[in-house]
Amino acid sequence: MDGVENIPASVYRDGAKEECSLYIPVTACNPEGNGIITIVDTDNDGVADELDKYPNDPNKAEDFYYPNEDRYGALAFEDLWPAYGDYDFNDLVLDYRYHIVSNADNLVTEVNVTVVTKALGGSLHNGFGFQFNVPSSAVASVSGTKYFNNLINTNANGTEAGQSKATIIAFDDDQKLFPNNSAAFVNTVSANPHLDYDTTRIQISFSQPQRGEDLGIFPFNPFIFIDQNRGREVHLPANAPTDLADVSLFGTVDDNTNPSSGNTYKSKDNVPWALHLVKGYSYPEERVDLNAAYNYFSAWAQSGGQSFKDWYEAEPGYRNAIDFYQNQ
Ligand SMILES: [Ca+2]
Ligand SMILES: [Ca+2]
Ligand SMILES: [Ca+2]
After folding, report:
1. Domain span at residue 272?
2. Would residue 2 count as lying in a domain?
3. pTM of the full predicted structure?
């Protein structure tokens, strides 16, 4: 009608378009250019759709993972604290990954935690949790926790009641994560059938966006509590007990904890009951001492972490393969 050739739409392929207002930047080969650039920000959070990981959610813009989007960190616990026990460091073995979601102001609005429980080298019924360095009231909601017993008291927002800092109990009874287990242990005796891991996914939303550094340090003070005794907590060395820890156990049997000096969850020989290995953890066969499996663990622990900082690596002479579960 207007004398302009009508080209069928099917001619345009691979993103090519026909429109008079299309933006074409000025370049050496096109010194005139065309139109003006348009930025689409559907959720109006200040981050353009093409850069916004959540283009339809104004509270979310970016993802961050710890230790990595494709990898897990590892935690392992001994569960006879305050006694050493057999020190095979497989009583609870789990992998974790934190997925932090932040908004356009780079403030954290949501934390997603994946906990993969791999091995239970004991018969006690232990629970697992972690703690942020912000008040319980900073949390809006918690979902995905697994409670089997009538042990954990929670606030309306899903954090644990009676805690000044936001504390999330992921599960209250590790044995019940493996309902089909008929053996005494889970994945610590090489001769027994290997059981599928349990994966627990927890989502925490904050009532107000939080500065990442205010939440604390990865992996956010993880801990177990032993055999349905909520106060019998075991944390990583130099980490603080929660408000519900039974302080009367400190300094008893093999433990040398003194919270006022910050020296917590270590023995008189500087030995811990919890391990954090950000690159993952190969653990000993049931009742095999960690010191037999890893030649330089005790030198590392007794030096206060100064010698053999890479004691867990698979370097020549570092490990004794026969001492590991399924020679992993
Ligand atoms: Ca946006
Ligand atoms: Ca967004
Ligand atoms: Ca064990």
Report:
1. 9-327
2. no
3. 0.89
